[in-house]
Each structure stands twice: as structure tokens, then as C-alpha cells.
Amino acid sequence: QVQLVESGGGLVQAGGSLRLSCAASGRTFGSYAMSWFRQAPGKEREFVAGIRWSGGRTYYADSVKGRFTISRDNAKNTVYLQMNSLKPEDTAVYYCAADRTPYGLGVSVGTYEYDYWGQGTQVTVSS
Questions:
Q1: What are the pLDDT digits (tens) for 62-77?
Q2: Where are the beta strands (DSSP E) in 18-119?
Q3: CA 5 to CA 7: how far, in whole Å?
Q4: Using an 8 Å Cβ cutoff, are 96 and 84 in contact?
Q5: How much of the chain is in helix, strand and coil states, percent to nearest 5?
Q6: pLDDT over 90 (residue 28)
Q7: How far apart are CA 15 and CA 69, in angstroms?
């Protein structure tokens, strides 16, 4: 059984920064792509950022490109999301997710490609 535990969310003013962490356990972390999604009230869960199993390539939603950075430390079984220049529209519950297929060529933006999810961490950006 895989467990993903997010941390680092909170309340921040617009323009501020937060760093989310997602600690994984239960399978070979370094073999799977990892991604961050978010879900705002009344909206569907959306892809934010993803990183290949090797860490060699990263992918971002247009809305966060240039402001957010995803990274991973396979030795620590942890994936991170550094969020800078936060905006009120970034307010959401943020989830990390593990790809269901090992050694994938890229990162999927669809939720159906991920078989394990964390419990989510709330990020609130005030104006």
C-alpha cells in the first residue's frame, strides 16, 4: 500500500511563497512520475506540475509556469512544489499523486493516470 503525505500548506498574502512537500512510502518511489494537482471549491481537480521518474523533465500548467517549481529527491522519497508569486486564484487544496505506470516516458495531466493520492493540503492566498 502506497502512502502519500502532503505538508506545507497555509495562508499567505498575494505575492508570497510556500513550499509543499509530499513524502511517499510503500513502493519504489524513484520508478514513478509524480505530480501535483489542485482543486478549488466548485471546480474540477486540475493538473499543476509533474516530474518524470528520473527527475530529468518537468511539466507545468500554463497558469503556474514561471512561478512554481516541482522537484524530487528520490533518496528521501519526497517531491516538492515551490510556489512563488502566489495569487488569490492559486487558492485550492493541493494534492500530490503517483503515476500508476513505472518508468513512463513523460507525465500525464489526467487524474485517471494516477493510482495513489495524498490527503491534500490547503493553500489560501489572500489579496
A1: 999 999 999 999 999 9
A2: 18-25, 32-39, 46-51, 58-60, 68-73, 78-83, 92-102, 114-117
A3: 7
A4: no
A5: 5, 55, 40
A6: no
A7: 15
